[in-house]
Amino acid sequence: MNFYGLVDGTDASLKHYLRELSGVDQVGADARAAMLATRSIKTTSKRWAIDTAISMVDLTTLEGADTVGKVQALCTKAVRPDPTDSSVPSVGAVCVYNDMVATARKHLDLVGGQHVGVAAVSTAFPSGRASMPVKIRDTQDALDAGASEIDMVIDRGAFLSGNYIDVFNEIVAIKALCGERAHLKVIFETGELVTYDNVRKASFLAMAAGADFIKTSTGKVVPAATAPVVLVMLEAVRDFYSMTQRRIGVKPAGGIRNTKDAIKQLVLVNETAGPEWLTPSLFRIGASALLNDLLMQRMKMDDGYYASPAYVTID
């Protein structure tokens, strides 16, 4: 495996690599995130920001009550978010449980969404509590069903216990399954990692192990994608790029529900990692309700008034 010359795959080298990481100034991270949250964008840039945010959405449904019909409707919306306006871009991907991957892929292809990916949550999502053979089978099932993106969860218990090599090896194994046919997003569940130092450590561990994206959370635990946590992860991918010349994506998920929240995320990306990350290939937003608000704000820019939610399709 190629670990970018940072580790050799042993426990000793991984622990040395993680010990050498700089710590996070918690007060400074909080202050910078709060400052960036006050930034506004020009009205002339708002349409671009809304369309960019739409293109970055991983339109998500992860409920026990999901049905074939609900997933099909979500896929239709993913391809044509506003059926009355073909200039609205498609979303980045549809994110579903494994058993809905084949349904999503088939329906996306049927409605002209071959360019929209299917992301499958994997490795015993959301808890990550399962044996490695189960996690491998879970991932292989998703890939066989047509998933082009795998959103895996790390074993937070192992990480918090200092068993970093176990977490590292799981990521390596899942990435080996994905190969070149699927991008791997590694979910930390930052609300359970507690400290910014742990978030930074998990970020570098996952990137060295082969992650294509690092992701804040499952959306099932609060807090989820807070601005300071996203800031810490964006600083990590920026620093990792300086070390390796490889750009890794970031996906905040959980709690991003309206256009104002989404635009704050874009400002964070631009001011922290840089404008090169302002693309769906390097930044995604895991959300369900967000898309409707983006569409309503877009309609307001065209019509001059804020449309009722009845004017957009229900997810």
From TrEMBL:
Question: Record's family?
Answer: Belongs to the DeoC/FbaB aldolase family. DeoC type 2 subfamily.
Extract the GO molecular function terms from the UniProt entry.
Answer: deoxyribose-phosphate aldolase activity
Biological process terms in GO annotation: carbohydrate catabolic process; deoxyribonucleotide catabolic process
Which SUPFAM superfamilies does the protein's record reference?
A: Aldolase
What protein does this entry describe? deoxyribose-phosphate aldolase
Under the cellular component aspect of Gene Ontology, which terms does the record hold? cytoplasm
E.C. numbers: 4.1.2.4
Which keywords appear in this protein's UniProt record, sorted alphabetically?
A: Lyase, Schiff base
Q: Which organism is it from?
A: freshwater metagenome
Q: Where is the signal peptide?
A: none
Pathway involvement? Answer: Carbohydrate degradation; 2-deoxy-D-ribose 1-phosphate degradation; D-glyceraldehyde 3-phosphate and acetaldehyde from 2-deoxy-alpha-D-ribose 1-phosphate: step 2/2
Q: Which InterPro entries match?
A: Aldolase_TIM, DeoC, DeoC/FbaB/LacD_aldolase
Q: Which reaction does it catalyse?
A: 2-deoxy-D-ribose 5-phosphate = D-glyceraldehyde 3-phosphate + acetaldehyde
Pfam families from the entry? DeoC (PF01791)
